[in-house]
Amino acid sequence: MKLLVCGGAGFIGSNFVRHRVRDHGDEVVVLDKLTYAGRPENLKDLGVRLDAGAIEDADAVRTAMAGVDAVVNFAAETHVDRSISGPHAFVETNVTGTLTLLEAARELGVGRYVQISTDEVYGSIDEGSFTEASPLEPSSPYSASKAGGDLLVSSYTHTYDLETVICRGSNNYGPYQYPEKLIPLMVLNALHGDPLPVYGDGRNVRNWLFVEDFARGISHALAHGAPGEVYNVGGPDEAQNIDVVHAILRHTGADESLITWVTDRPGHDRRYSLGSEKIRALGWEAQVRFDEGLERTVSWYRENAWWWEPIRSGEYREYYERHYGRALG
Ligand code: NAD
Ligand code: TYD
Asked: Of 142, 176, 178, 320, which residue is the catalytic one?
């Protein structure tokens, strides 16, 4: 297969590209704006073509999309906290960018379009799990912009018969995740003896999915998903943030005194939980439980300082100081 992977230089996108090249032998073109989160080094040794360009740039999109069998779109602004302090880029990429891709896919007659989305479009749920039929009730500028993108994708199947599939993943973790997100931030801070900033009461619950399991789930949806359908891809385990932080302390050997309680995120969703029966019916199953995946993740960060050292000394340092009001050690 010849695939266009948008946002393929980011965390999940690059793990998906690795999976497609190694397990499926695909030819892959990556289109990526290379924002702070897009790292060309995530793709090194994979032998893929990397076009540096934005998904809202119609010319760059047409060039990258020419001759591909399918498009998988990961490209997005993805951090809830950044969406609260600066929402415009989220609408530009997650809504306008998605629309630009859909227009090109329609014009060029692309066979399949897979949109990567998130459980956050459903909002927060205190008990039970969201199904694909749950209403969209996004609560952050990030999740609202992702929901907007999803609605446009569905409209292109309804209006133009474009073969689209939407995959909604729960919280991912694993190698190559930018350390603004909970798990890599806590792992790197623990390894450096820096404070571990826990928001609110630390009892918010996330449904953790190892990134390689998500990559395989997306491949199932790409190959077997019915046009116009949505597939939830949820992880096998849920955990409160504070328990995740304690597990990271155990794996890194860092001291509990590093835990620092900080002001809660505005509008912080209490709990996410995804029911994944529909994608299971296509033959997918999560293979990595949280304990194993976290151990593998901590080992990866320990062994790959070449990857995170340039990040910790660059834009991230300024972001961290601005957001947390304190410098990294
Ligand atoms: P990430 O922030 O690590 O990577 C995003 C990538 O998109 C980067 O390579 C960035 O350079 C690129 N990008 C940003 N704006 C762009 C633009 N305008 N044009 C082209 N490229 C652009 O994000 P991630 O965690 O890998 O998430 C990938 C996708 O998966 C997103 O759509 C996100 O909403 C979704 N998702 C993420 C999670 C999670 O836990 N991280 C869970 C479910 C769904
Ligand atoms: P995050 O990784 O930002 O993912 P999302 O908010 O999209 O689920 O955050 C995961 C959880 O961890 C969320 O409840 C917020 C919390 N959190 C902290 O307590 N401290 C932090 O420094 C960060 C980044 C997140």
From this structure: 142
* 171 pocket-lining for ligand 2 (C-beta < 6 Å): yes
> How many CA within 13 A on the CB side of residue 65?
27
To the query of whether residue 178 is one of the catalytic residues in this protein, the response is no
Q: Is 80 in the pocket of ligand 2 (CB under 6 A)?
A: yes
146 Cβ below 6 A of ligand 2: no
Of 5, 12, 119, the one to substitute when testing ligand 1's pocket (max ligand atoms within 8 A of C-beta) is: 12
d(CA 47, CA 314): 27
Instruction: Identify any residues that bridge with 209 across adjacent strands, giving them in sequence order.
Output: 172
What's the chain's average pLDDT? 98
- Beta carbons within 8 Å of 10's beta carbon, 6+ residues apart: 32, 37, 38, 39, 42, 74, 75, 78, 178
Q: How many residues does the chain have?
A: 329
Q: What is the pTM of this model?
A: 0.99
Which amino acid would we find at residue 25?
Answer: G
pLDDT average, residue stretch 175-201: 98
Give which of 281, 153, 226, 215 is closest to 3, Cα–Cα. Answer: 215
Coil, strand, or helix at residue 270?
coil
Backbone region of residue 131 per phi and psi (left: phi > 0; alpha: psi in -120 to 50; beta: other values): beta
Question: How many angstroms does the Cα of residue 75 sit away from the middle of ligand 1?
Answer: 5
- Which domains occur in the chain, in start order? 2-170+211-233 (3.40.50.720), 173-206+236-268+288-316 (3.90.25.10)
| pLDDT of the residue at 329 | 80
Does the pLDDT value for residue 314 go beyond 90?
A: no
pLDDT digits (tens, 9 = 90+) for 7-37: 999 999 999 999 999 999 999 999 999 999 9
Residue nearest (by alpha carbon) to ligand 1 atom 35: 117
Q: What mean pLDDT comes out for the span 280-299?
A: 98
Distance CA 107, CA 120 (A): 31
Instruction: Output the DSSP codes for 98-114.
Output: HHHHHHHHHHHT-SEEE
